[in-house]
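Technical annex B. To support the medicinal chemistry partners, we prepared a structural model of the target in complex with zinc ion, based solely on the information shown next.
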Amino acid sequence: MVSLMEKRGAAVDLLTDPAELRRYVELVVETTPVSDVHTHVFPPEFEGLFSHGIDDLLTYHYLIAETLRSTDISHARFWELSKTARADLVWRSLFVENTPLSEAARGIVSIFDAFGLDPRSPDLAEARNYFKSLNLNDHLDRVLEMSGVSELVMTNDPFDEREAHVWGTGANLDSRFHASFRLDALLGDWGETVEILASRGLSLGPMIDDGAVSELRHFLDSWIARIKPLYIAASLPPEFRYPDTNVCDQLLRQVVLPTAREHGLALALMIGVRRGVNPALKSAGDGMGKADIRALENLCAENPDLRFMATFLSRENQHELCVSARKFNNLMPFGCWWFLNNPSIVSEITNERLELLGPSFIPQHSDARVLEQLIYKWRHARVQIATVLSETYARLLQSGRAVTRDEVVRDVQRMFSGNFRAWVGLSPGA
Ligand code: FIX
Ligand code: ZN
């Protein structure tokens, strides 16, 4: 006896068989190009900022923190070593003397696998020779292809001298790389900002008066004209409150929000990082804390004409972020950030987002810093997203509503690029 759903399935290509459904979702998730909405990857023309190859991969701050748990070397001695010696030490401790079980270590194994390198090698000679032999532009194309990344967003800090230099040369940038305008320095350390801006010819005092506001607005306007960012971004500590009585609140209200409004730019907030919890670990020393979601809700409520993207670093903030996004349609949750980018947590967060928001969110960003990390960050994320999504469709099927192949493609495209492109005003699928 042929069921009603099977009859309909034959007519409109419904995926009524759970095994076939799962295989199809995996295929679509594996092959749909993604817009990577937040990375620290730069193209080769950004001298001093473009990171790639085995030594940059192994000295990634995630792996440094893990190495210092598995060796006796002091933090001070570690930082005295050259980059090559640090990479050798990381390799020996995490991949030879121990099994690379952590997510960041497994990521290196996935990269070795992608390039046919031996992850059990006793040293880095083979990997170093391999990466040395590559033509950088061809390699960049190949890595983006292997990761299924069609475009990505850099993190561009106007207060960083190296950036100022590159943008000043007027170089024609690779169109797959978009800029974002990162304002951590401005919102996080007013004293230092005043000094940096003084070195660029702007005279600002300790007070944020009308003169300072107009100088800052002018500074931001000229950077926006130069780098054409897709959005303005800032990372903020767990203590971030809005409204507040501090300098950050004044700068947000008088400088950042009006700038976003005037230029029609979305504002991406990354909340919950505690910088320098262990200063001896330098770039690897940041921690996290649970934030107060009401700050974000107040921003969304007070500024209904602005679009916010938000990601929180604490697992404890994830469910309430979904609930806030249900209340504010000018809020787009994105990614499973940093310490959350582990299979078990990506799976949990993606599930709760699908259950509370349907396909109206951005499931992941890579946060890659070294070019080849794009490969593992996206391969690993895709596995979790495919599993969670196919289970969601399977429940829908059980309830009596199968999906078609076209619907699966539509949903994945929406989550992998459509939601982001629409949010930042890019044409769909260009
Ligand atoms: O603030 C950020 O954008 C963080 O993602 C980084 O600073 C952090 O170091 C990182 O790479 C996390 O993945
Ligand atoms: Zn980041």
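Notes passed to the chemistry partners:
The pocket of D-fructuronic acid (ligand 1) is lined by residues 40, 155, 235, 270, 338, 367, 369 (CB under 6 Å).
The chain has a mean pLDDT of 96.
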